[in-house]
Amino acid sequence: MSDTLLEVKNLRKHFPIKGGIIGKQVGAVKAVDGVSFLIKKGETLGLVGESGCGKSTTGRLLMRLLEPTEGQIYFEDQEITNLSRKEMKSLRREMQMIFQDPFASLNPRHTVERILSEPLIVQGMGRAEDRKQKVREMLEVVGLSSYHAKRYPHQFSGGQRQRIGIARALMTRPKLIVADEPVSALDVSIQSQVLNLLQELQKEFDLTYLFIAHDLGVVRHISDRVGVMYLGHLVELTESERLYEQPLHPYTKALLSAVPIADPKAARNEQEILTGDIPSPSNPPKGCPFHTRCPKAMDICQSQSPDFQEVEPAHYVACHLYHDGKLHV
Amino acid sequence: MEVKNLTTSFFTDDGIIPAVDHVSFHINKGEILGVVGESGCGKSVTSLSIMGLVPNPPGKIISGEILLNGEDLTKLPEKRMRQIRGNDVAMIFQEPMTSLNPVYTIGNQLVEAIRLHQKMDKKQARNRAIEIMKHVGLPRAEELIDDYPHQLSGGMRQRVMIAMAMVCEPKLLIADEPTTALDVTIQAQILRLMKKLNENDQTAIMLITHDLGVVAEVCERVVVMYAGKIVEEGDVESIYEHPKHPYTIGLIKSVPDVHMKIDKLYSIPGNVPKPGSIKQGCAFAARCEFATNRCFTETPPLLDMGHGKSVRCFLHETVEDVSYSV
């Protein structure tokens, strides 16, 4: 068996825009437009990007919560792009999701016990007695107490709710967890608790994470490798250390220099502040999606979309500046 | 501006909850003051108190003074308060979509703000609006002025909000989480704009945020709040280099750094207490690793550490390098 847990090839998701009286399709929002990457067993792959770059859509496509327009998804070397709902249901035992908003993702009318046993019931795992036992064990694992099982979500704080969300994702003992902005709704002091918990759980349960977030500091902290998305495209993907120390794509550089540093004395490189806004994904620019804001844009960028290629070992970049591992200016 | 001993309480079914509890601080002319804290620490209620916008009932300013050029804002009649809002103190909010009226054009709303405070006819006001829009870096101001808020992006809406706040060239701009809803690249643009306004127009800014990075980037002095109280105050460099209060220390340590990788992130145990749940002692005691018995029974005073620094913690009572200011 290879050490690849999940692989996507040329994944696309276009949401149709309908208009007119007969509801004809008049356009498409290209939320994800040709994304390829793989996730190795036991690693954490971070996906960063600004709002609307397609990182959440990518996460949902992997889980087949959304149907891809084009492309293939492989889970443990098995293609899952065309699995039926029934087949997919049993596969979801292996892949679970943690959501951003701990207030909206837990049913307010259910007790924690019910919330946590639901994945087991859906998957037909264990008898009622065992399930109760498992719920209590899992609560302890995520740092809550077994007596919390009888309570309702509103009785918990934001951080505790996110712990419940994490416990729910772990109930079926999955291999892959897609965490979509799991800490962005939390206060700083709570955020670090949850990040530490996620790291401990990864070791304990041998988990693989796809960690989607907009906070570059958080992503660096938790990820082994990081992919940067812009307007539905992956623009750079490499080991997290290398991405943060030697970013190659102009967008990654700009993104990193825009992050405020919590140190007033930090030696600050001349900040490269991007001008303008992210273009609309329903009408993306021709050529390289970033050329409208890129400080290094060339003529070729306006007409030709750059390939996503390996310019250094294990360092992928989609930019015309780099070709055969060399910088062309 | 100076805030003295401000206490704002909310009268709820569960009793009186002091959201802001004996808070005192000042903002000098032309400086940027950062107010940092987690949700529920009272930083937003402080700013609403200054603007006289605390919803009443249930909220009420119980005691304290808010002095602006010698005038106590808490005692002013609503009519005078209206003149001060906008003219002297203006505010921008976190969510630029909900603070703009979706059914009026940008120009309409700017012109309304201008004509409320200045005697101008419509045409003059419109020209002034275009001028301000250019001032805050909005491109194509002549066309944008006839657009509706939904036609603009988040960053542009926040620029419009800032333009609206700057209409009367206020002396103090209160910015309540102005960049929280924005992407980092847009956040950098807005922060740069606010710094520019501060430098060129000498507008003092009170920047309320939970993001320690933002504070380090633009502020000169910082006030750290926890559970309705100020726990530490000082200039930016000393707070980040030598934080004194255990809460400030923990807060700074728990932010993952983009420029450095550490194996395990520090985290403050426990949760932010619910407002009003702490009746006695230091509000942070239950989460503090240095807490002693005394911390649970006695409320520590805000100790003056000299050089404009102060900290609310018993740990620093006996520290030797305390130099009391005269």
Question: Main attributes?
Answer:
heterodimer; A: 329 residues; alpha/beta; Rossmann fold; eight-stranded mixed beta sheet; four-stranded antiparallel beta sheet; 14 strands; globular; B: 326 residues; disordered C terminus
Summarize the structure.
Chain A is α/β, with parallel strands linked by helices. Helices cover 30% and strands 26% of the residues of chain A. Chain A is globular.
How would you characterize this protein structure?
The complex is a heterodimer of chains A (329) and B (326). Chain A is an alpha/beta fold and 329 residues long. Chain A has a single domain, classed as P-loop containing nucleotide triphosphate hydrolases (Rossmann fold). Chain A is built from 10 helices and 14 strands. In chain A, α3 runs parallel beside α5, α4 packs across α5 and α5 runs parallel beside α6. Chain A is globular, with a radius of gyration of 21 Å. The model of chain A has no long low-confidence stretch (mean pLDDT 88). The two termini of chain B are 22 Å apart. In chain B, α3 packs across α4. Chain B is of the alpha/beta class. Chain B folds into 2 domains: 234 residues, 3-Layer(aba) Sandwich (Rossmann fold), CATH 3.40.50.300; 77 residues, no CATH class. In chain B, α7 links the parallel β7 and β8. At the A-B interface, α6, α7, α8 and α9 of A face α7, α8, α9 and α10 of B.
The CATH architecture of chain A comes to 3-Layer(aba) Sandwich
Determine the most extensive contact between two protein chains: A-B, 44 and 45 residues
CATH uppermost class of chain A? Alpha Beta
Number of strands of chain B: 12
- Overall form of chain B: globular
**H/E element sequence of chain B:** EEEHEEHEHHHHEHEHEEHHHEE
The averaged pLDDT of chain B comes out at 85
> Per CATH, which architecture of the largest domain in chain B?
3-Layer(aba) Sandwich
DSSP strand count of chain A: 14
| CATH class identity of the largest domain in chain B | Alpha Beta
Give the overall shape of chain A, derived from the CA principal axes: globular
Q: Summarize the biggest pleated sheet of chain B.
A: 8 strands, mixed
| Weakly predicted, low-confidence segments of chain B | 320-326
Radius of gyration of chain B: 21 Å
Distance between the termini of chain B: 22 Å
Give the class of chain A from helix and strand content and strand pairing: alpha/beta
Helix tally of chain B?
Answer: 11
Residues in helix, % of chain B? 25-40%
Mean pLDDT of chain A: 88
Percent range for β-strand residues of chain B: 15-25%
Order of helices and strands of chain A: EEEHEEHEHHHEHEHEEHHHEEEE
